Amino acid sequence: AGLAAQYAALKLAPRPVLMLSPEPLGEGASSSWAQGGVAAAMDPTDSPNAHARDTVLAGAGTVDRNVAQSVTAEACAHILDLTGLGAPFDRTAEGTYVLSREAAHSSARVVRVLGDQAGAEIMRALAVQVLKADHIQVLDGVMATRLEVSGGRVIGVAVAQCSGGLSKSIALRGPAVLLAGGGSGGLFALTTNPPRIRGQVIGMAARAGAQIADAEFVQFHPTAMACGLDPAPLATEALRGEGATLINRHGERFMRGAHPDAELAPRDIVARAVYAQTQAGLQPALDTRTAIGAKILTDFPAVTQACRLAGLDPVTQPIPVAAAAHYHMGGVATDMTGQSSLAGLWACGEVASTGLHGANRLASNGLLEALVY
């Protein structure tokens, strides 16, 4: 019941849709926790081609170029669509979209909401539309446990209640099944994802015989807050886009020697550097004091709240960070229409491997992929 699922359910009208969600609609989905926003070439000086080029460069040689071109070409239309559905994107006084720059992007092209509230606010707007849509029925408190396959075709799912009640699963039949169950972050000791999301849906598809692609490609976010909370709160990449720096306990900016783009290097490079500092006992931290200062309190409310819960003051103290499991690029292999290798089975969102991300997802392309597919 994350962004990919809810958007797909709305777009499937007038076909009847049954949504299965372990939690109440939108809760427990990684989409709601996304801070940065949606990547889209909205600026007149930017272009989908430049966005596609950045996507390919970040993906370490394994991005499907046709997919990158297709997805980035659609991005602007989906931002306008979400705006029409009620997503309150940040706008300037003139009405243009506020754009942030994130790592490995050649331009500022991340459309955001209330600084770092993109996921939560987009999901809130979509849930309103889903709950009033006549063609959608939401069944929460249940979890799919198995795909029903007959003659090489997926014909439905087995579901069970998440707590108490049913002693065995019940089969639900349907002409098409769309998997949108998220990634695998909950499998890892340190993650930014809801803990329930542990790769179950990828496993379910694999057991049914669906082709799985690039399952080893798991992205680690370099600036999860190392404050003892589990899951780890995220210190959004947009902070580094605003000039925040990565330092160690000696006050040294260790990214300067690691990559020409320093803190805005591709995410895999920054994550490795942060991890190396942690392993060496050098206590990496994100320093927002000079570049952002007191503006962090109003411009990044989610980060500020997480800092307060951890007893930190980001205006006067660096934020301790660590690399944490964040996004699964691999998953159920799909074609350009989102169809899996099994008849009757589609996949979208983080559970899918579309070819867009390659071995390293470009920042804020995750929500974009969820929308397009």
Contiguous runs where pLDDT drops below 50 for at least 5 residues: none
Order of strands in the sheet with most strands: 11-14-13-12
* Rg over alpha carbons: 20 Å
How many strands, which pairing sense, and closed or not: the largest β-sheet?
Answer: 4 strands, antiparallel
Helix segment tally: 11
Q: Strand-residue fraction? A: 15-25%
Mean pLDDT: 94
Gap from first CA to last CA: 15 Å
Kindly state the number of beta strands: 17
Shape: globular
Structural class by sheet pairing and helices? alpha+beta
Helix content: 25-40%
Could you give the order of the helices and strands?
HEHEHHEEHEEEEEHEEHEHEHHEEEEH
Task: Write up this protein.
The chain has 373 residues and is an alpha+beta fold. Helix content is 28%, strand content 20%. The protein has eleven helices and 17 strands. The strands form six sheets. It has a four-stranded antiparallel β-sheet. A three-stranded antiparallel β-sheet has the order 2-4-3. A three-stranded antiparallel β-sheet has the order 6-7-8. It is globular. The protein starts with a helix and ends with a helix.
